[in-house]
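Budget justification, computational time. The allocation requested in the original proposal was used primarily to generate structure tokens for proteins on the priority list. As evidence of use, we reproduce two of the resulting records. The first is shown immediately below.
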Amino acid sequence: MSKVSNDKYCLKLKLHHESGDVLYPVKMKNTDTGKVAFRVSPGGNTKQHSLEIEDELSMLEYVLKQDYQVRAQSLNSATDSSKKRSGLYRLSQRSILKHEYI
């Protein structure tokens, strides 16, 4: 694995996708406010349904204990190194085979 910025990704939580990709919670920039934070959601796929969480431990609390969805991204693709998998994922989602909390 190449060197990755700890500022953008939460490397403490790995989501194993059915494609073979490993996903990590990722910070997103809100284009309206300029705020960079993890985005979690109880449901829904819009900024209006999301909470922006700057603190990694708080984000992990929502995802691990309250079953919130989180924006996550692969560092690279298991099938094509030029494409990254990115989206909104819940640990209990069918496409997430397992997760690891380090």
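The second record produced under the same allocation is shown here.
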Amino acid sequence: MKKYSIISLLLLLLTGVVLTSCEKEEEVAQGISGAWEGDLGLTHIYHGETIKADRTIYIFNQESPSRRTGDGYIVEYFTTNHTELGVVYTRLSWETWTRQNGDVGIEIRFSETENKEIKDTKIHILKYAFDDKLFKGEYEINGQTIAFSLNRVTAPEVSNVKYWDYNELIPTWHQVTFSGKIYLEREYQGQKYYPKNVIITFDVDPAYNSGSMGADKAYIKEEYDNAPWGSYLADEIKFWDSYDISDDKRLNLYRSEGYDSYNKDYELMYIKFTDTEMKGEMFVKTNVFEPFTLKRVSNPDWSNVKLGFSPWIKK
């Protein structure tokens, strides 16, 4: 006799249908095909502001009744704020697969190839239930589990909707911020100062990013007590790269436009990630490393932070 989790039993009461390991991939694909309205956490950066559509419709088109894969669209309606965007769409692809425990999972991917942030974004729906009207459950992305609920609707005519260039409007599912104390030394007029706290926001989550050189930006803020330049120093990281040497994962952060492997602004080594923190060691000088632990926190509003280090502050 199959035992259900509390979540599964609740979904059974709410929707009347719970998918078990006996469900075939093709049956699940056929069951979710169509148009669904709701929220899967999609936000965007638009002219430096994080925005979200008033309505979002996800359209899943099954390739054929006997296939477990398909494509589709995301149609977004901006009717309250940023009405100049109107109604826009982008493409997606999806498939079902059988997990090791026998259950059928659903993976949603973006079909855009010109933008790495889009291309590498994947949603895994592992716990779910649906009927003719409701599709709900939990999806996983970047180690986070998020509940969702979608209602079946009539699919809009995509040919009447404009395609949005995602080189300008980028989903920020990957954006992640860490905060904590890192050993840094700044010098001004012969006096040395050390930040009490450091905040780093990566546009792409470094725990999952492949680290293509120059592709990724970040922001960093160093907070001080009793420093002559004020309570903080902050700047945009023009790009950062990550790479592995055996079990040593490293991150190099550069504030300058040009790449100089001998002039890294921040060199983080021996990095380990969990869902809530990033640990590692800060390279200080040859054979000198300082351990650090940064906690994952909410993304700050960088539009209110003055960026740019004064040139007279020494590293």
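A brief technical remark on that second record: The CA atoms of residues 219 and 236 lie 5 Å apart.
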